[in-house]
């Protein structure tokens, strides 16, 4: 059979663990801006992490034992790295390092929302890194759903397809239809599980906003006390031990992902994908099957179950696996590295180690892990701009001829949480 249960299962893996949202019709640029992250930072505790140390196993046990109980179970979906930043202390003897946590989530799981909240509150990072691009930040706030019309009723597949084509003129009708079908199936899964698609991103963002607001209030209090000559040592110590939180939008723009995916598919592959998506929208797993499968993957220490599903996807849709999973692994891994290097500059100013929490679909954890380990082993020498250029260009859009494309390989896109 052209379309069978294996394809349905692999599409579940793709939707639940690798794609935060595929339906992006416009840039949501109201609250995002580009800037280098130079947030003030207070104290930093020393804890064991995965690094170039020979005692990795002992360090793995040590830092996991400090986590909340629920997170200790997330063996294959929660990773930690001590990343080189390429920035050295003024005397040139000590390299500034950056702690990076990578949390793999299911985009249609309430447990993932709880995991994110627990990790954010435990780590209190300087940066929250999200598997989102500026075209999809409507997920972070209570903005109108793009799949609803002005009256609030659901748009038809045809209406949604036309809208995507209007806002993405480079995309043909078949590619736009595939995007709509992916989004529809994902929405159906979320409805069955009574969750919001990408709810873990929203939860992480809200925790970051709260942390940032507390920090800014503390800064204002200290400044007020200093202006009146009443600054207490207690307030100063509290300020030194605190930090704000910027939010990095670390995923490749969804428009480029869909364009590259469609460009690399053969004619037969395109037909097969559309038919598979149409079939999957009709033949969906039950709520119980979804919950059991998601839980088994989140607690799988070796990621064998998810890896097997992704390999199945590779056999049926090799181009889709490469563009939607592997290339985005590269893009996000490189953006984490760029963010860590920027954090090193801040550490060099005050001597405090920065922390990053990256929230991504669990399907991206193995690929991102490989890239970050490569950066650690090469002692921070990976040419990230070269790697990024390979995964952002399309047949029509080239880095050397397009200023916007150039920023994708040179800039880190971040936003300060709106307080």
Describe this structure in words.
This protein has 419 residues and is an alpha/beta fold. Helix content is 53%, strand content 10%. The chain contains 16 helices and 7 strands. The protein has helices at residues 5-17, 56-65, 69-72, 110-123, 157-167, 173-192, 199-227, 233-240, 254-264, 267-282, 287-298, 304-316, 318-350, 365-377, 384-392, 403-410; strands at residues 33-34, 78-88, 95-105, 127-130, 246-249, 354-361, 413-415. It has a 7-stranded mixed β-sheet, sandwiched between helices. Strand 2 and strand 3 form a beta hairpin. Residues 1-6, 23-40 and 42-58 have low confidence and may be disordered.
What is this structure's SSE topology?
Blueprint: H1 5-17, E1 33-34, H2 56-65, H3 69-72, E2 78-88, E3 95-105, H4 110-123, E4 127-130, H5 157-167, H6 173-192, H7 199-227, H8 233-240, E5 246-249, H9 254-264, H10 267-282, H11 287-298, H12 304-316, H13 318-350, E6 354-361, H14 365-377, H15 384-392, H16 403-410, E7 413-415
Parallel strand pairs: 3-6, 4-5, 4-6
Antiparallel strand pairs: 1-7, 2-3, 5-7
Largest sheet: 7 strands, mixed
Q: Residue-averaged pLDDT, rounded?
A: 76
Helical fraction equals: 40-55%
What's the overall geometry?
Answer: globular
